[in-house]
Amino acid sequence: MTTKPNALPWLWLSAVVIALDQLSKWWAVQALQPIGVPHPVIPGFLNWTLAFNSGAAFSFLADGAGWQRWFFVLLALVISAVLVGWLARTPRRDWRTALPLGLIVGGAIGNLIDRLHAAQVTDFIHVYFRQWSYPVFNLADCGITVGAVLLIAFGLFAGKPADSVR
């Protein structure tokens, strides 16, 4: 009995996301002081703005008494473990599943490292247009979001086998 190769090698993508995320956050802390001061990249659209978030997306639960740190640590660990398990059961050639899962795992662990190290996540990418402003985010958030969108899109628009069409 032979086993088919699984998609665990796609965790290389997670490692790349983690490395880029941590390097970019280190750069942001060094270069974007003081906190909250915008540094225009594309005026009227994109700033680098150093911010810290002890909550989740959109500062959800940021005003908690500290318990949210461990809640989000546990959540990231559970989600990452489930997704790694999913990769282990996914055929290696199934890049439409492996690519998004690798991005999500990398993003989750990138933010997990921040929570364990500093009890908050470092954010610095600020997109805005006129009065509209998106909350400041980071590369780990990009990995999670792009991975989730790809997972949904590939799931919705997956090809049907030719013999199933009548």
Kindly describe this structure.
This protein is an alpha+beta fold. The protein has helices at 11-31, 67-89, 95-118, 139-156, and strands at 39-42, 46-53, 121-129, 132-133. The chain has a four-stranded antiparallel sheet.
Itemize the secondary structure elements and their pairings:
Elements: H1 11-31, E1 39-42, E2 46-53, H2 67-89, H3 95-118, E3 121-129, E4 132-133, H4 139-156
Antiparallel strand pairs: 1-2, 2-3, 3-4
Helix pairs in contact: 1-3, 2-3, 3-4
The beta-strand count equals 4
**Roughly what is the average pLDDT, rounded to an integer?**
90
Which term fits the overall shape?
Answer: globular
The Cα radius of gyration reads 18 Å
Largest sheet: 4 strands, antiparallel
Q: Roughly what percent helix?
A: 40-55%
Structural class: alpha+beta
End-to-end Cα distance: 36 Å
Q: SSE string, helix = H, strand = E?
A: HEEHHEEH
**Low-pLDDT residue spans:** 162-166
Q: How much of the polypeptide forms β-strand, as a percent range?
A: 5-15%
Spatial strand arrangement across the major sheet: 1-2-3-4
What is the count of DSSP helices, taking H or I runs of 4+ residues? 4
Main location: membrane
Function: This protein specifically catalyzes the removal of signal peptides from prolipoproteins.
Catalytic activity: Release of signal peptides from bacterial membrane prolipoproteins. Hydrolyzes -Xaa-Yaa-Zaa-|-(S,diacylglyceryl)Cys-, in which Xaa is hydrophobic (preferably Leu), and Yaa (Ala or Ser) and Zaa (Gly or Ala) have small, neutral side chains
Protein name: Lipoprotein signal peptidase
